[in-house]
Design brief:
Chain lengths: 320, 243
């Protein structure tokens, strides 16, 4: 029999696949485009450039693989007793995976592009540039992994939802991870691009850039971790609402939006701060310690804004 | 799969014959025991290094390199070498690193997966930094700096100082908690059939997951924690030189 809520179920599956495949396709296209440009500029380094671009494209592909995995889980677990509320709470999965996957697939092409250009410029340091790109791209994949975990838990819990505010709780959990990881992911990839360009400019600054990159990327990705904490708190720690009125669900959505939009600006600006420091360290490796100290202090101050958003949304959830 | 099994913990509560129960008086027993085991292992390892390893030539070489690494780290982030700060940062690094990678030891869980351990480490680091900056600047200047642009800014400055506890401890907690959830999900998913178990063992996927999410993340977060403590210390020192 035709049921309008089935539409939501299949729309979730379809939108997950569509958003992720579009972004992965664009990202891989950009990477191979810049690989061809680099080979044109430096034909001797052909083998290294091809290897780096293929590994970069494989890492971008991870996004699509995780999305397909969730889509398969959703298709296989379709049960006959699924209610309207089950299908409604699956919108949370679409929010988490579509927004995160779209951004991650697009922006994780930036470090791969920068790596191919850097190898064309410094063919003798191909091994170091390759290791650096691998590390930064793996760190950029963090939000899609957290979105994957949250989607899995939403899928497990959605079978037992009976009221509208419970559905809104699951949607809020997905929304928090989805919106919250846009800004920090863009920041991470801007930072990674600047760091790899820095090695391409001055390979002798490799050691200084490496330790700075570890610390700075950990600071930039902290908002993603905060979003994961709020999403897990929404999934497990808050009491499940039982009455029919949607007001508790609206509070959950508000807290998710508060943290999600709160990380947007700080994530991008923190990434830009670190990127500027990276460029200057590559020009001036002698003054790396004062540059990295100043950049870390600025990033710590920028992060204070995210902590205000985190505290507000925690208070909203716990003292509702 | 029961979805709440990842956050449930056994509790020790205050003896019921006292007639008073409160959530603040109950203790997470598993975490306490595991922390004490880790402290014992750390002490044992350091004693062995001190008594046995430094007597051989190769051992002394390795230990000297390790010490030189921490001296370099302190000098780079503070601008000059301070013995107390170096020892403090190194002990924070070793304790947090062993707490983060504790799940590679059989029968142990990461204590930093619990928010209480992460918060306590964050508060220790915060108090050390604040007491050091009070010592170097003097109490009057320290309190005066809180009223710096206008007196209205006082609450914002206090929140700004306190937010460093939340940022450092929640970063540690969230990373380790997320990593432990991922590894547990992976190993529950793989144990559903013999075929997937064999695949996991022979493709090297098990080792890869543990390597990345336990060893790499744990050591990275411990390093970041120690480095940020040193950076905050350098902020206290730079205030002194600028006035």
């Amino acid at each position: 029999m035709y049921d309008s809520s089935q539409f939501l179920h299949y729309a979730t599956i379809a939108s997950t696949i569509i958003a992720n495949s579009i972004s992965v396709g664009i990202g891989q296209g950009l990477t191979s485009f810049s690989a061809i440009q680099s080979i044109n500029r430096q034909p001797q380094a052909k083998n290294d450039i091809i290897r780096v671009s293929i590994i970069g494209m494989t890492l971008i592909e991870t996004v699509a693989i995780l999305a397909v995995l969730i889509a398969i889980i959703l298709i296989v677990n379709t049960s006959e007793e699924a209610t309207y509320y089950t299908h409604l709470s699956e919108i949370g999965i679409a929010c988490a995976l579509c927004l995160t996957g779209f951004v991650v697939g697009l922006v994780s092409a930036l470090p791969a592009q920068a790596a191919t250009h850097a190898i064309a410029r410094q063919p003798h340091y191909a091994q170091k540039i390759f290791a650096f790109m691998l590390m930064t791209q793996v760190l950029i994949q963090t939000p899609i992994i957290s979105a994957f975990i949250v989607s899995w838990f939403i899928q497990v819990q959605s079978a037992s939802t009976v009221v509208i505010s419970d559905c809104l709780r699951l949607i809020a959990s997905g929304l928090c991870v989805g919106i919250g990881s846009i800004g920090p992911t863009i920041g991470l990839s801007l930072f990674a691009k600047a760091a790899i360009q820095g090695i391409g400019t001055n390979p002798r600054s490799y050691n200084k850039l490496l330790s700075f990159t570890f610390i700075s990327e950990a600071i930039i990705e902290t908002p993603i971790i905060f979003c994961l904490i709020i999403a897990v708190a929404l999934l497990f720690i808050v009491q499940k609402p039982l009455d029919q009125s949607p007001i508790e669900g609206v509070i959950f959505i508000a807290s998710a939006l508060c943290l999600g939009f709160g990380t947007l600006g700080p994530g991008i600006s923190s990434g830009k701060t670190g990127a500027a420091a990276c460029t200057q360290i590559s020009y001036n490796p002698e003054s790396a310690s004062i540059l990295s100290r100043t950049s870390m202090l600025a990033q710590g101050l920028i992060e204070t804004v995210v902590i205000y958003a985190l505290l507000l949304s925690l208070l909203m959830i716990l003292f509702k | 799969m029961n979805s709440t099994e990842f956050i449930e913990t056994p509790q020790w509560s205050l003896s019921p014959w006292l007639g008073y129960e409160h959530p603040f008086l109950s203790v997470n027993s598993e975490i306490i025991i595991h922390t004490w085991i880790i402290m014992f292992l750390l002490g044992l390892a350091l004693t062995i290094i001190n008594c046995v390893l430094t007597k051989t030539k190769i051992g002394r070489f390795i230990v000297l390199h390790g010490v030189a690494f921490f001296i370099d780290l302190t000098t780079q982030s503070l601008g000059h070498f301070v013995f107390n700060h170096c020892v403090f940062a190194a002990s924070l690094f070793f304790f947090i690193a062993l707490c983060n990678i504790a799940s590679i030891i059989p029968w142990l869980d990461e204590p930093t997966r619990d928010i209480n351990t992460a918060l306590s480490v964050g508060i220790i680091s915060f108090l050390y930094v604040q007491i050091y900056s009070i010592k170097t600047q003097g109490l009057g200047k320290y309190i005066g700096a809180l009223f710096k642009p206008f007196f209205i800014m006082f609450p914002l400055n206090v929140i700004g100082k306190l937010s460093s506890i939340i940022s450092s401890s929640f970063r540690l907690f969230g990373n380790i908690f997320g990593g432990s959830i991922i590894t547990k999900l992976y190993f529950t998913a793989i144990q559903t059939s013999l075929l997937t178990q064999l695949f996991g063992i022979f493709s090297g996927f098990n080792i890869l997951i543990v390597l990345f999410f336990t060893l790499f993340e744990g050591l990275l977060q411990a390093f970041v924690f120690a480095m940020l403590t040193l950076t905050f210390l350098s902020l206290g020192a730079s205030d002194e030189s600028s006035h």
